[in-house]
From TrEMBL:
Keywords: Cytoplasm, Exonuclease, Hydrolase, Magnesium, Manganese, Membrane, Metal-binding, Nuclease, RNA-binding, Transmembrane, Transmembrane helix
Organism of this sequence: Mikania micrantha
PANTHER family for the chain: DIS3-LIKE EXONUCLEASE 2 (PTHR23355:SF9), RIBONUCLEASE (PTHR23355)
Assigned protein family: Belongs to the RNR ribonuclease family. DIS3L2 subfamily.
Protein name: DIS3-like exonuclease 2
GO MF annotations, alphabetized: 3'-5'-RNA exonuclease activity; metal ion binding; RNA binding
Amino acid sequence: MDGASWLVRLEAKENVVLFGYWFGSCPTAVAVRSCYCSRSLLGVADGLSGFPVGGLKGCRKKGGFGDDSIKNNTVRREDVGVGFLAIIVAIGFVEYFSVAHKTHETIIVQDLHQRKNSEASGGYSMTNNQAEHLAQRKPFAAHWPLEAVNVALEKGDVFKSMFRVNAHNRVEAYCKIDGLPVDVLISGFHSQNRAVEGDIVAIKIEPFSSWTKMKGSTPIRLPIKEESSVNNSIYGEDFVQELIRPSSSSYIDENNHPIACSSGERREVVPLVEKLCTLMNSFPSKRPTGRVVSIIEMSPRRKTIVGFLRIKPWLSNMEICKKDLKKSKFLLLSPKRDYIQLISTDPKFPKLMVALRSLPNSIMKRLEDCDVTLEMELIAAEIVEWSEENESPLAHVIHNFGRGGKVESQISAILFQNSINSEFPPEAISCIPHVPWKIPEEEFQHRRDLRNLCMFTIDPASASDLDDALSVERLPNGNYRVGVHIADVSYFVTPNTALDEEAQIRSTSVYLQHYKLPMLPPLLSEKLGSLSPGIERLAFSVIWDINLDGEVLDRWIGRTIVQSCCKLAYEHAQDIIDGTFNFEGLQLHGEFTWSDVVISVQNLDEISKVLKKNRYRDGALSLENPKIDLLFDKDGIPYDMVYSGRNKSDFLVEEFMLLANTTAAQVITRAYPSSALLRRHPEPNLSKLRDLESFCSKHSLQLNASTSGELHQSLERLRHELKDDSAFFHVLMNYATKSMQLATYFCSGDVIDNGKNWDHYALAVPIYAHFTSPLRRYADIIVHRTLAATLDVEDRLDSNEKRLVKKCFTGLCYNKEVVESFNAQKALADAAVKYDVPGTRALVDVAAHCNERKLASRNVKDAIDKLYMWLLLRNKEVFLSEARVMGLGPRFMSVFVNKLAMERRIYYDEVEGLTVEWLDVTSTLVLNYHPNSRSYKKGSTSKLRTIEEVAMLTFPHNMVSEPDTSKDADIEPAVFPLVLHILSTIPVAIHPIGGDDGPIDIGARLYMSSYFC
């Protein structure tokens, strides 16, 4: 058939509507076939005289063509009026069902852009308005091409950012833009335009009239530069639009894509970010909104979806389709039959559609056998396509992990979801020297021999990958010479090898409850590279001369050969500090005595205290949240949990690692200012920080969050004030932690240092890097290579130049003139090639990948911890705890569960027999339960939830007759009516959610007595 064809398929729960337009060499004919609730076929078709309708034979129900029309394969002239009416009625049906029944709409538009302006000879030409109307029926807008995005990014008309979805409400997503104090809201699926969690997107800021009011936030006032400030009087909309309007050099083509301006045109002087800051300062309660115009880089998470297939609804729809086919002569194209839905375990991801033809044979066979147990199994899938015509992405099933209620299946799914591999390829392992291995003789010639120093490692008792060792000497002048000695892993992991490639792909070790998945093969990470006691090892050493005030007087950095005399656990070091050390069972190597070790640990402890005091004096921040450790039996099953805290020995090691990392950052940035791999910690989210201040103010607590140092001092003061209410302080720390942003790796040449952009907020240092853990972090290996190149250059300059330039990179004094000399720059360039120091562009990619893998590692740890907590709760009949109310509203409350040190939500809206009274003025919630009352959900025929989903009801006679000697015995149930305010203490019952029937989670319910119900 000549012309274009459009097919609109509208799916409701039990509805299928087919709507087709045919355009040929004659004017329009329309056919509508609708299968509605009664599933009877309603055919509606019309056209103009002479139009061929050979494809419409059989459409002979009420409202369709007459028999003579079908017979002659033409449409009669008198059907014209009915035709246009049919179009209106059909479109009305589509719109009505999509709104009233929340339908899923799929629009397939073929050759729209190619044909909308074409005109067949003697035929019909669709107008632009008609074409645009049909194009608008697509759920999503077309993405801008990459060239257009690059032009817009260069001119500042769009912004590049990572797309992050609200796990509690997928309609809301956020993008962070450097320079803005709050994230940009991307609200609604249309504005999100097919972006998923973790995508790198280009977003365009919406007009000010579309900005939303920030929810429950304290208005933000920003410091505005004087030259860019404006009058803070009342602004008109014209002024607002002018303020954020793109520059006059911004042009768009016919497809609304930006095009480059001519060479003589220039964008406005004031950048859009500064304009937005000015506008936000004038309207502090407004949050900017935006929309996704293109996906620049797809998230790796698209290839690692885990979820459950919806088997039962599909089988039910199959029965419906079979009945319909018996009644109808038409074979309707129904996604209900050809596709099956997959629900991701991650609420940040949309529902996915899987084509049956793409299913693995094993799954398809069980589907054909109507095996409903398949719905209980975790499925691995990947998103293969999401076109602008489809509301849901198309996915392809990869693997079946097994039952969701089994720990093994869950662990496999978690590792897959985060792209964590356990096995090393043979090519990578072949790069490691065979054992036994000895340090080559030539290494002794150009490394400093430190085997005569009393040094030791302090690590967790179970640690086998020992990155760092410590040493200390008391100098004749009373000062200390402290050494941090780090395993020289870069000696073994040489650039451009299979081992280096595998290490870069992994980027970090992943630590689980019972074991770890190392970044490097165990032969290297636990043997050849590990600073095991009594064995000669290669190292990078940083040695400082430090006085009693913690001031660094001198330092030396270089490659060394070391030998640890013993392996101490944190508990051993703490016993030494406390004076209760018992060295029985421990091995000591070399010529040193236990007295030497004890004195060294005590000296290091004294120095670390001074260093720590100085750090906090200079503005450092510590957020020590309570941590829960699970206790496991011999079979690896959790049976209990305990609070765990940090000892002085933890802080001892931490102080010297921080000092070493800061020193390494200073050195490599001097040598390679545009290609140093650094780590920064941005300032807190200003909106959430203001929420913290407002929370404290409402409860008569004084908090100063103007700087990291002031915030730390305020929290320490509040810790003392609330020493009798530790739960309250934990809630406060939870608020403070929420305001913090993640620390990230970055390339120094990619971020302009304006005095703030390189800062590490929590550590209060202007420059920082990771150097001390090369066995488990790839970023540290890059820093080691850069440091090796720097030392090589420094040695060459020291041998060729005057004494004055000694240690021009590693010393305390920085001679910029010498460093920028021709000889130094040439030597640095040669060394960068020799040691394969990445350039700026390559390092940007390395930093981005390290950030992504670091986050994945953290996600795995959190997910595994939650899995074992879920398993512990599943094995307990009841788990009760007190909780503090952190947030209240008409639909749900947020509570901090003391025993679990975690925040949970309790939803109480639309519950049978439960009345909810929310007093907004006083932020008071009143819940009352009337078991015999009948409630109805307004505007819906769906059932209300039961009270058991919200509250665990206990009966008084059970409490009396069954004495409880467990830890839950001191938790008393609350009674209705329940009146709550912020920080109210309430009893809650914790329970496991999901497993075989959905994603695992930990839920909380109110613990209530039924006595007054």
